[in-house]
Amino acid sequence: MDAGAPLRLMSRRPAAPLAGRFAVPGDKSISHRALMFGALAVGETRITGLLEGEDVLRTAAAMRALGAVVARDADGIWRVAGRGIGGLVEPADVLDMGNSGTAARLLCGILASHNLFAVLTGDASLRQRPMRRVMDPLSACGARFSAREGGRLPLAVSGPKEALPLDYRVPVPSAQVKSAVLLCGLNAPGITRVEEPEATRDHSENMLRHFGAAVQVEVVGAGRVITLQGQPELQAADVVVPGDPSSAAFPMAAALLVPGSRLVLPGIGLNPLRCGLYATLAEMGAAVAVENRRVEGGEPVGDLVVSHSALRGVDVPAERAPSMIDEYPILAVLAACASGTTRMRGLKELRVKESDRLAATAALLAVNGVKVEIEGDDLIVFGTGRPPAGGGMVATHMDHRIAMPALVLGLVTDRPVMVDDGSFIDTSFPGFVELMNGAGGALAAA
Ligand code: S3P
Questions:
Q1: Ligand 1, residues 59, 100, 110, 174: which to mutate, most atoms within 8 A of Cβ?
Q2: Which residues have C-beta within 8 Å of that of residue 374, sequence separation ≥ 6?
Q3: Model pTM greater than 0.90?
Q4: Interval between CA 201 and ligand 1 midpoint (Å)
Q5: In sequence order, what DSSP letters do the residues of 342-378 get, joined into one string?
Q6: What is the mean pLDDT of the segment spanning 256-271?
Q7: Mean per-residue pLDDT for 200-214?
């Protein structure tokens, strides 16, 4: 997406409250994994509700380049004919993962234990992101990596003839690193073991089981130890992708902020390791109800009913960060309109997202008249109980999760809010502008 012209967008106060029932696109984390596990399984995997965003389409293209047959039916169901563990073929060209850190890091895990040569690259944002966090642990299987200075893409990887299993303690809370190690372990004989001091999203573990792998998870304090028996015969399995809670957070926040609003968002993923935002919103006094709880494709889901609420500032503990890591920018927008101060603790990992998201979130608010501070790894937002002035041009730094919160903020500010480039919204939430406007929002090209 490097070459495209920037897409300036703006939002302003709508004439009426937001209302209606809207499906948000499929979960990004689960969509990447469904394509990858499908490509590693024997047989045909059918995926319903796949997120057709740029990031996931990059994964689909990469799995095709590695020899899997990946196709979309007219009814929107995706079919993946897998190659079986160890059966991937050497890609004939560079694999371009676009804006997607998840795609790049998980793919490193898959490639490391395959005896082939591959080169990965990405857009200007992804080429700045740290890859050493996966290169280092994966090298222990026998793979050889070389990358640019600082472990940045492009990188090249050559897998060994026979990979060794890994035993790794993940030093940062990262589901991507954990998943990369597990994916590598799939094509190594023996037991691969990963220890995470803080539990992170467990979609890989759930999906591995769903495809028939032997995975054990032991809860140890706040963390987990995951063991995987290597070289299983993964069997193709159908996957139903729930609505992405990280995407649902944007219309949800809009409904909380715009007076008189009520939105229903059906079929949203409720994996407990993704639910930190709901706990925080409850503490802030938000009216968010979950109806029709059910399990779909091995993941808990429910329908969210969200109504306008007067919010108060809260102290968000650092331990909660892994379960809501992608939700801090939109939480910061809510905090800006709440009464009282909100302190969000322990946000170090936000510095290495699609942008330095800690700095970008603070700047998003400041340019729209909000008092905000960064203290160490904490973000402090001084809410006044009413929306800020707005009128700012937000620098999005190729980061979808900076663009969307800015546009939500503009629905309640005195003056419209603009974003310098909304094109990256398509990485995770194609149809965002249309959904918001369908609900009564006022988003437009600027
Ligand atoms: C993801 C893990 C998180 C998250 C990202 C998706 C995943 O990243 O921010 O959007 O699908 O595993 P980290 O593992 O870097 O925390």
A1: 174
A2: 358, 359, 362, 380
A3: yes
A4: 8
A5: EEE---GGGGGSSS-HHHHHHHHHHTTT-EEEEETTE
A6: 98
A7: 97
pLDDT in tens, 284-319: 999 999 999 999 877 999 999 999 999 999 999 999
What is the C-alpha to C-alpha distance for residues 353 and 428, in angstroms, rounded to an integer?
14
Q: Is position 96 annotated as part of the catalytic site?
A: no
Token digits of residue 137: 């642990």
Q: Where are the alpha helices (DSSP H) in 97-244?
A: 101-112, 132-139, 175-185, 203-210
Enter the tokens of residue 277.
């935002």
For the Cβ of 325 lying below 6 angstroms from any atom of ligand 1, the answer is: yes
Element (H, E) at 223: strand 223-229
- Annotated catalytic residue: which of 326, 399, 421, 426? 326
Task: Enumerate residues 6+ apart whose C-beta is below 8 A from 108.
Answer: 120, 131, 134, 135, 138, 145, 155, 157, 180
Which segments of 240-386 does DSSP mark as H helices, in order?
A: 245-257, 276-284, 328-337, 357-366
- Choice from 27, 29, 198 to test ligand 1 binding pocket (greatest atom count within 8 A of CB): 29
Q: What is the pLDDT of residues 154-181, one digit of tens each?
A: 999 999 999 999 999 999 999 999 999 9
Q: Strand ranges (DSSP E) for 4-151? A: 9-11, 19-21, 44-48, 69-72, 78-81, 95-96, 117-121, 144-148
Mapping DSSP to helix (H, G, I), strand (E, B) and coil, where does residue 114 land?
coil
Cβ atoms of 281 and 287 within 8 Å: the answer is: no
Distance of CA 183 to the CA centre of its chain: 18
Is 180's C-beta closer than 6 angstroms to any atom of ligand 1? no
pLDDT tier at 1 (50, 70, 90 boundaries)? very low
31 lines ligand 1 (CB under 6 A): no
Angstrom distance (rounded) from CA 440 to CA 246: 21
SS3 of residue 235 by DSSP = strand
Distance (Å, whole) CA 12 – CA 22: 21
